[in-house]
Amino acid sequence: MRFAALCGNGLIKNSIFDTASPENRDNCFAPYALLKEKFHVSDIQIDTVDESQGRTLAFELHQDVQHGTKTIISYLLMFETEFVKIENGDAAEWSKYRKIFTWNDDLIDGDRFVKINFPNPIQVHPIDGFANRNQFCCLISSNKALYVRDDRDLYPERVKVIRWFEMHAPNDFDLYGVGWDVPMVRGNLLGKLERRFWRALGRMVKLHPFPSFRGKVAHKRDVLMKTRFAICYENVRDLPGYITEKIFDCFFSGCVPVYWGASNITDHIPADCFIDRRQFRDTCEVYNFLKAMTEQEFIGYQQRIAAFLQSDAAYPFGSEFFAETIVTTIVQDIGA
């Protein structure tokens, strides 16, 4: 038996491999549980770094770039963009890794940079039309901001959508997530100070800066199964291959997403499975399109989504592809 460690992002106590963990929100740990199983089949035991103390490690697998000199063989799972984690855009840091698994289609070279997607336990929702979908449209997200300025930043675009609905169609929109009990703030140091100020003020005065805010949700599926449409914007637009779990959260719940993000989204997901925000001038046009949609047209979206999820085209976004790609690549590389 060889040993390995999964490092980064505060991962401890093997919780990321445990689907019974209370931290396993929306079953996001399922791909990692499968990853651990597949490594075990290859006679490799992978644990979080704290559980690996004192062992001689065959390699480390890092979630996003980790600082420091790599003294053993290391591989990189580069999921976060450089706009959120600056180190992920540093080519000097990349040089410390034997292989890099990434969503970034521009980097894939068939050798050192290996294509991987944000993994999802694929599931197909029954075709139910408007039945039990009493909520018209929602947005589930955190009130955050990029650390660096960039024209492709979609955090402000989410806020624009929220404000439009609150002003023009408040009964057709619900906002869920974390941090919406304070106004939108910047993502730099000044933003941190602003957030502290609003938090402190909120302890003295009840703040309600976003009237559409309904609070946190334990499971996004609980909301999306009751909602017809969801505003589904990535953190950053026009990054080829940057397709996170957001659109799939909608698919798995039979909710039709209004998507804005990856420049080549239709290379990976059929265009008739979602509403492409790029095809509309503004939120008003999107809203009018949604309101005019008949139940039969809505069912058509659900049917196409279900067909996609059951097709080979969806396999690269599933847990099996994620685990198999990583394990096969690393095992071949180290000769295990």
Walk me through what this model shows.
The chain contains ten helices and eleven strands. It is α/β, with parallel strands linked by helices. The chain has two domains: 137 residues, Rossmann fold, CATH 3.40.50; 181 residues, Rossmann fold (3-Layer(aba) Sandwich). The strands form two sheets. Strands 2-1-3-4-5-6 form a six-stranded parallel sheet. Helix 1 packs parallel to helix 10. The chain starts with a strand and ends with a helix. The model has no long low-confidence stretch (mean pLDDT 92).
Q: What's this model, at a glance?
A:
The chain is an alpha/beta fold and 336 residues long. The protein is 30% helix and 17% strand.
Structural class: alpha/beta
Total number of β-strand segments? 11
Integer count of domains: 2
Q: Can you give the mean pLDDT? A: 92
* N-to-C CA distance: 10 Å
Please list the strands of the largest sheet in the order they lie side by side.
2-1-3-4-5-6
Helix content: 25-40%
Radius of gyration: 21 Å
Major sheet characteristics: 6 strands, parallel
- From N to C, what is the helix and strand string? EHEEEHEEEHEHHEHEHEHHH
Quote the beta fraction. Answer: 15-25%
CATH architecture of the largest domain: 3-Layer(aba) Sandwich
Treating each run of at least 4 consecutive H or I residues as one helix, how many helices? 10
**Low confidence ranges:** none
CATH class of the largest domain: Alpha Beta
* Annotated CATH homologous superfamily of the largest domain: Glycosyl transferase family 10, C-terminal domain
Global geometry: globular
Topology:
Elements lengths: L1 E6 L22 H12 L2 E5 L8 E7 L10 E5 L12 H4 L4 E4 L10 E3 L19 E8 L12 H14 L4 E6 L10 H14 L17 H5 L2 E7 L11 H8 L3 E5 L4 H4 L6 E2 L6 H10 L2 H15 L9 H16 L2
Parallel strand pairs: 1-2, 1-3, 3-4, 4-5, 5-6, 7-8, 7-9, 9-10, 10-11
